[in-house]
Specification:
Layout lengths: L7 H7 L6 H4 L5 H6 L6 H26 L4 H28 L6 H14 L3 H25 L1 H7 L6 E5 L2 E5 L9 E4 L9 E5 L2 E4 L1 H4 L5 E3 L4 E2 L4 E2 L4 E5 L7 H10 L7 H30 L5 H15 L2 H20 L2 E3 L2 H7 L2 E7 H5 E12 L4 H11 L6 H13 L10 E7 L3 E6 L2 E6 L1 H7 L11 E7 L2 E12 L3 H10 L4 E5 L4 H11 L3 E3 L4 H17 L6 E6 L5 H6 L2 E4 L6 H6 L2 E3 L5 H36 L5 H19 L1 H9 L1
Parallel strand pairs: 11-18, 11-20, 18-19, 20-21, 21-22
Antiparallel strand pairs: 1-2, 1-3, 3-9, 4-7, 4-9, 5-6, 5-8, 10-22, 12-17, 13-14, 14-15, 15-16, 16-17
Helix pairs in contact: 4-5, 4-7, 5-6, 5-7, 6-7, 6-12, 7-25, 8-13, 11-12, 11-13, 12-24, 12-25, 13-24, 13-25, 13-26, 14-24, 16-17, 19-24, 24-25, 24-26
Length: about 675
């Protein structure tokens, strides 16, 4: 069997055939890729052949045994042939484990049960138990392999080589050998091996492996190209900007590979449970075998047979395998949709999402600002825009970039001269101050003007406002608008439809802008004019209120663009980065990474999480229920050995197959 109820590290150290390989490989690397090349692996084909030969020999031996009266020693020798053909690896695995001090695993239980059946003279039953267990393992392995396809496909984004341009020639090298500043060539059909900037050519990129979206993305000169994409339409040259170890593809693969380390409470409990459960079961089986005959309540043969049934049924493999498998399939299903969940513990948290807190800019809106109005006082619009652009020239804030872009659009022949802009100071959450042509110019929001004691004297609506003052005199206001994403309203509605109790929007924008956006999107609450630290305070308060109300099923998530919101993403029960393709800050700070800009993926992540948790709970109750029933019947002497094997292997296979339904759910969402 592939489930052994002790440490995986120990199992892998002893290398017990393929029985440990599946559990050791959590990411679909070479081991899994080889198995996916054909329908069955070589080891699985070997089991099929051995099962077939053993089954034929079992039938033949049973016919011979019924027609000819053989001595006991010859009966044992006769049935030992099919028994050893199908069960030698189980017996060997048990022996190796015992030699290393590991007694209580599935190999040990199956060996004791079948050898005990031989001792009781139940030779066909012993062979059948071993045969059925191996057939069950075959189905289990196949189900496990199928369930790993999502992760295996994701792992295919890992590039094998990079075409490095060197002294006029192109050489194929390992991606690890390429460094920032090098130029690589990516031909049609090849994977982009490293992150960089397009310096020659243009093409369409297949980003499905990263984002889950089927529509190709067109890239042209000077645009960023991310590793893991597939070049579809033209030969391109890329100037590498990151080492392979820091590239997007590597970070994503590391994230997925390490997801198994962050376990839910259920998984952690099952791991501890297996360590003391199996020894307890063995002791109880001994009691079932010994106590009734000692107190003249039954014959030794019957008591031992009941103890063997008890041993087989009691193996906790259905729980030990199917529960982690359920979460693994859920993570794989989400990854196929461009949703990277960093661990099964976050699947459990997402399934209980009750309060969704959104950052506005870049999350619910496109984050692409444009100047839509200029209201100048005592000067013309061009002069006001010039003052603002010069003052904002060194800032990377989207608002500052939009002001500078608007200035350059009308003044292509002019560059912002450093000689006339001095002493630029940026105040986070307020604005900027600069010395322009010897005069102090301040640009910022309402709060900044109030802080400076400057009266704006007019109410503005319809966008983000940049007020401009010169030597403490109000000079006018520039209005900048940010377009709402087309999916945002539908995304909020989808969250409410699946039972999320509250939606909240946080923004540093003016009250009027926040009110308008919240109204258009039907968001329950909003907070406006927030400084970066204020967002953290709001989320902290929501979590405190939830904890005070003991709201375990009211998990608070924060959904942001992952660039400026790292502290809030970390503080939330579940931090979700939106549109985080290529953003190091997003991948590092959040618990869930949405690889594109679609806010609908939040509701989708919750649906996949809830489906996964539903499947896991079904597996737990189904496994415990069937085992409890068969155990009760077994202790009463009403269960044959083959039924005990079904309660162990059959329940395991059914539970693993049930876990795969989470993967099919993701396909249905496509």
């Amino acid at each position: 069997m592939s489930c052994h109820c002790h440490d995986h590290e120990h199992e892998q150290e002893h290398n017990h055939e393929h029985k440990h390989g599946h559990e050791g490989c959590c990411c679909g690397h070479t081991h899994c890729e080889e198995e996916h090349e054909g329908r069955f692996s070589d080891e699985q084909k070997s089991i099929i052949i051995r099962c077939a030969v053993s089954a034929v020999l079992l039938v033949a031996c049973s016919i011979i045994n019924n027609k000819i009266e053989l001595a006991r020693i010859f009966q044992i020798a006769l049935f030992a042939v099919p028994y050893l053909i199908i069960g030698f690896d189980v017996l060997w695995g048990a022996a190796v484990n015992i030699a290393h001090g590991e007694f209580f695993d599935e190999n040990f239980l199956m060996s004791v049960a079948t050898i005990g059946a031989f001792a009781l003279g139940e030779y066909p039953e012993a062979v059948f138990v071993m045969l059925f267990s191996q057939i069950g393992e075959l189905f289990e392995d196949y189900a496990v392999d199928k369930s790993r396809e999502s992760i295996a496909e994701l792992m295919n984004i890992r590039p094998d080589t990079a075409n490095l341009e060197k002294e006029g020639t192109v050489v194929s090298v390992l991606p690890e050998e390429v460094h920032p500043g090098d130029v690589i060539v990516v031909r049609v059909g090849e994977k982009v091996p490293l992150d960089g900037v397009l310096i020659e050519g243009e093409t369409d990129l297949d980003t499905k492996a990263l984002t889950g979206e089927s529509i190709p993305r067109h890239v042209a000169l000077n645009e960023t190209v991310l590793s893991g994409c597939i070049n579809l339409s033209g030969v391109i040259k890329i100037r590498v900007e990151k080492e392979f170890g820091e590239s997007t593809v590597t970070k994503i693969l590391d994230l997925v590979e390490n997801a198994a380390s962050k376990k839910t409470k259920a998984e952690s409990f099952i791991t501890k449970f297996a360590h003391w459960y199996t020894p307890t079961v063995v002791l109880l089986a001994v009691a079932v075998a010994v106590l009734p005959p000692l107190f003249h309540l039954g014959a030794w043969n019957e008591s031992v047979r009941r103890a063997l049934v008890f041993l087989i049924v009691s193996c906790p493999c259905a729980l030990v395998i199917s529960i982690p498998m359920g979460f693994f399939v859920g993570i794989g299903a989400a990854s196929k949709r461009g949703i990277l969940i960093k661990g099964s513990c976050y699947i459990e948290s997402l399934s209980k999402l009750g309060t969704a807190v959104f950052d506005k800019t870049g999350t619910l809106t496109k984050g692409v600002f444009a100047v839509t109005d200029i209201d100048a006082v005592d000067s013309d619009k061009e002069s006001l825009l010039r003052l603002a652009a010069f003052a904002e020239s060194s800032s990377l804030h989207p608002v500052a970039v939009s002001v500078c872009t608007a200035w350059r659009a009308d003044n292509e022949q002019y560059e912002i001269s450093e000689s006339c802009v001095q002493n630029i100071k940026e105040y986070a959450g307020f604005g900027v101050e600069a010395l322009i042509d010897g005069k102090t110019v301040c640009c910022g929001n309402d709060a900044y003007m109030q802080k400076l004691g400057i009266s704006v004297g007019k109410q503005f609506e319809g966008g983000t406002l940049v007020h401009v003052s010169e030597n403490d005199a109000y000079k006018g206001t520039i209005t900048i608008s940010d377009e709402i994403k087309p999916q945002s309203k539908e995304a909020v509605e989808a969250l409410k439809k699946i039972g999320v109790k509250k939606t909240v929007m946080l923004t540093g924008d003016a009250e009027s802008v926040a009110k308008k956006v919240a109204g258009l999107l039907s968001i329950d609450e909003y907070r406006a004019e927030l400084l970066p630290g204020d967002k953290l305070d709001v989320v902290d308060k929501l979590i405190s209120e939830k904890d005070a109300a003991k709201g375990k099923n009211n998990i608070v998530s924060f959904i942001g663009d992952g660039i400026n919101d790292a502290p809030v993403l970390r503080r939330a029960d579940v931090g979700i980065s939106m549109g985080a393709l290529g953003s190091d800050a997003a991948i590092e700070a959040s618990d869930v990474v949405l690889m594109d800009d679609n806010p609908m993926k939040v509701a989708e992540a919750v649906k996949i999480s809830r489906k996964t948790m539903s499947v896991v709970k079904q597996n737990i109750w189904f496994s415990l229920g069937v085992k409890a029933l068969v155990l009760s019947l077994g202790v009463a002497g009403l269960t044959p050995l083959w039924a005990a094997v079904f309660a162990d292997v059959g329940v395991l296979v059914l539970a693993v197959c049930n876990s795969m339904r989470a993967g099919r759910f993701a396909k249905a969402q496509s």
